[in-house]
Write a structure and sequence with these properties.
Blueprint (H helix, E strand, L loop, with lengths): L1 E5 L2 E6 L2 E4 H4 L15 H9 L7 E2 L5 E2 L8 E5 L3 H6 L9 E3 L6 E2 L2 E4 L6 E2 L2 E7 L8 H6 L1 E8 L2 E2 H4 L7 H4 L6 E8 L11 E7 L1 H4 L5 E8 L7 H9 L9 E3 L19 E6 L3 E7 L1
Parallel strand pairs: 6-17, 8-14, 9-19
Antiparallel strand pairs: 1-2, 1-5, 1-14, 2-3, 3-4, 6-7, 10-13, 11-12, 11-17, 12-14, 15-16, 15-18, 18-19
Length: about 280
């Protein structure tokens, strides 16, 4: 199942078409994309037998954040082995956790205003929680995942790293700095959520500066996560309660711009893709 948000209405995506959830369920499930998480198990059961005959074509640019109003947004730093190495830091003993504020979230195809001269990109797997989790063991935590999405953790490094103390959450929460989607994809749609290819490609001025039409700075795989999804959610749930609809940006592989002296510029188009989940296309303006 692929649950998405089409112009503010919950839809199921299949083969380039969108099925309106409220209409297809006869009003059992409301149009509000957040309502599916009120009883995720019941929603998944209904969706498994949904009749797609009324599904209609849609435009990718009309998709909004598939979970538009999560109670909590978590993000994880230094969670890929190669990224920790490029940062010249050791592997963390515990997850490095911060937040991206809700106002930064957006859909998969958007324009993003470049706020300064040190804007960076980070391709990420996003996990969406499907049931309340508190002090959950790893197996329970993994079973509590609603689905997965593609995410991009844009960052303004000058703000993030401004002395005397880092401001991770502010530097990563400008408007449009948290695009994700195109849909929440359940695990049964994927060969192996723990081994998904992650890719970030850039076209425009930044690629042209390197003599390329397309520059691919990031190509990783979720198998290289230091804290995979089950252990990560188990750890978080031991400190905070996780609620249905919460989202977690799980970290980025190597290849971010800052170590290479690269910053995004107006005119750049950042395409972030994850195997089996789809892609984001974000244009810098």
């Amino acid at each position: 199942m692929r649950l998405a948000n089409l112009r503010g209405r919950a839809v199921l995506l299949r083969d380039g078409t969108a099925l309106d959830v409220e209409r297809a369920s006869g009003g059992r499930f409301p149009a509000d994309p957040m309502a599916a998480f009120d009883d995720w198990s019941a929603f998944v059961e209904w969706a498994a037998d949904a009749d797609y005959s009324a599904a209609e074509p849609y435009a990718e640019e009309d998709l909004e954040a598939p979970v538009p109003h999560p109670r909590q947004v978590f993000a994880i730093g230094l969670n890929y082995r190669d990224h920790a190495k490029e940062a010249n830091l050791g592997f963390p003993d515990y997850p490095v956790v911060f937040t991206k504020f809700h106002s930064s979230l957006s859909g998969p195809v958007t324009d993003v205003t470049v706020p300064g001269a040190t804007m960076d990109y980070e391709a990420e797997l996003v996990v969406v929680v499907g049931r309340e989790l508190g002090h959950a063991d790893e197996a329970t935590a993994l079973a509590g995942v609603a689905g997965y999405a593609v995410g991009q953790d844009f960052s303004e490094r000058a703000v993030q790293q401004r002395p005397p103390a880092p401001q991770f959450s502010l530097g990563k929460s400008y408007p449009g700095f948290g695009p994700f989607g195109p849909a929440v994809v359940t695990a049964d749609e994927l060969t192996d959520p723990a081994a998904l290819g992650v890719r970030c490609a850039i076209t425009g001025p930044t690629a042209a500066d390197r003599g390329l039409e397309e520059w691919v700075p990031q190509e990783g795989n979720t198998r290289d996560l230091i804290f995979p999804v089950g252990p990560l959610l188990s750890y978080l749930s031991g400190i905070v309660t996780l609620y249905p609809g919460d989202i977690i940006f799980t970290g980025t592989p190597a290849g971010i711009g800052q170590p290479q002296g690269v910053a995004l510029q107006p005119g750049d188009v950042v395409t972030t893709s994850i195997e089996g989940l789809g892609q984001l296309v974000n244009t810098m303006v």
